[in-house]
Amino acid sequence: MGAGEPTKILFGTDGWRAKIGDEYTYENVRRLAEGVARVVVADGAASKGVVVAYDRRFGSEDFAIAASEILLAHDIPVAYSRTAVPTQMASYEVVSRGAAMGVVITASHNPWLDNGFKVKAPTGAAAGPELLKRIEAEVATTRGPELKGRPFADAEAAGLVERYDPYPGYRRFVERNLDLTALAAEPLKILVDPVYGAGAGWIPRLLAGGKMQVTEMRSERNPWFGGVNPEPIRPHIDPVLDAMRGGAYDLGLLLDGDADRAGAVDERGEFIHQLQVFGLLAYYLLEHRRDLRPIVKTINESSMGERLGERYGVKVFETPVGFKYVGPKMIETGASLGGEESGGYGFAMHLPERDGIFSDLLILDLLVRERAAGRKSMSAVLKHLHEIAGPSYYLRIDVHIERAAYPEAKERLARDLVASPPSTIGSHAVRPHPLDTKDGVKFFLSDGSWLLIRFSGTEPLVRVYAEASSAPLRDELLNLGEKIARG
After folding, report:
1. Within-domain flag for 11
2. Between 378-389 and 304-312, two packed helices, what is the crossing angle to 10 degrees?
3. What is the predicted pLDDT for the residue at 324?
4. Could you please report the per-residue DSSP string of 251-290?
């Protein structure tokens, strides 16, 4: 990029993200909003309006105003969230209002110095590749200094801005499929951790008024996120494990910074990793809901999906990483569940988009139903899952690459791994057709274990994933993957 040239903006697996003050600037947010506005106008959908929401990160509400002012300059009405809200609330508002699109200012689980820009399609799902390419093409022709927005206060006075509170409608939406009053009546003790993010207060409010005792930790706004990434995985959620090891709670429920991802901890303070959560949710739908529609999962999701699909006679479809692929595939196949490794799960009975709050509520409902079947603890439920779906020893490591060296590292890995795949990994033979190049390079072992090496779409990282039949084999796979990633 030459001096004075605008930043080249490309969407990653879920939106565009960058460091605040570096590439994430008001100018670039306005350029993105201009791209959205041009596509909405070109589609003749301006009168439907655009939903705008934001999280609790530094300056998110101000960036949301800047984006809104560009939309308003095109005479596109804006529904603007009254406060920071979970990302999926924008999805809900888009669907309930029949809006043309949704924009969310959030960097999800990224480090606290980042912020981002997500786009929601009219279905409420993450905007798919075709829509994003159209927006990218428009953004490429814009220069921030040339963009003039309509002052937010002026547009609001003219009736083009509506400030919305999604809670009442969202509660009614959830209650179509889940009896919150009956759930709240269960005498359980729950610990909820929103990691200082936009999901704070939602689960306690939805479960208020019954016998269930819901305690929330790390619920105040803290744009620094207490020094951790707001991601519902270890080590970021270790304070929750510590709080639960005394046996004071029946279940821990986890959210990420914008609450579209979910996680869980059992009554012993043991982390239930995100592939296990996917297995639990699939089991819940198949066994307790008798929902035998297809399942969609990303390439880095658990093989328990296929094993459960075989057990219950349902089709399982695989996509590249990112809900921009999962959501459209769910709609295409009529799937009941879509899941990705990072802890994002969507449901046909709810939204074809990730919703960490709804996912957590379903995990809680699963525990209640399993207790009635004789499995009284979350650890017992998880044990039963592995008895019917097989083992899942899983871990992911992130190999950081210098930003300037990242493009070359990606090219080298993609070339070398495809050209010279291994025939064995450790003491295990690699299957005759080991490669899955939908998104990175994936190797399957003879016992069903797998290793995946792929490139982050939002950060200069090589991600190494392994799911194995034992913990030692998982660690062996990860060590090999890290060596490969580092060259």
Report:
1. no
2. 80
3. 85
4. EEEEE-TTS--EEEE-TTS-EE-HHHHHHHHHHIIIIIS-
Range of the domain at 279: 186-389
The low-confidence residues of the chain, meaning pLDDT below 70, are 1-4, 432-438, 457-458
Asked whether 196 and 56 are in contact (CB, 8 A), the reply is yes
Measured distance CA(487)–CA(485) in Å, rounded: 5
385 and 407 in a common domain: no
Report pLDDT for 433. Answer: 54
Q: How far apart are CA 215 and CA 116, in angstroms?
A: 30
226 occurs within a structural domain: yes
Which pLDDT does position 3 carry in this prediction? 52
Residue 1: its pLDDT value, please? 47
Is the Cα torsion angle 348, 354, 355, 359 positive or negative in sign? positive
Q: Are residues 194 and 50 in the same domain?
A: no
Shared domain check, 267 and 370: yes
pTM for this one?
0.91
pLDDT for residue 487: 73
In 10 A of CB 203, how many CB atoms? 22
Same domain, 192 and 242: yes
CATH of residue 478's domain is 3.30.310.50
DSSP 76: -
Q: How far is CA 402 from the centre of its chain?
A: 25
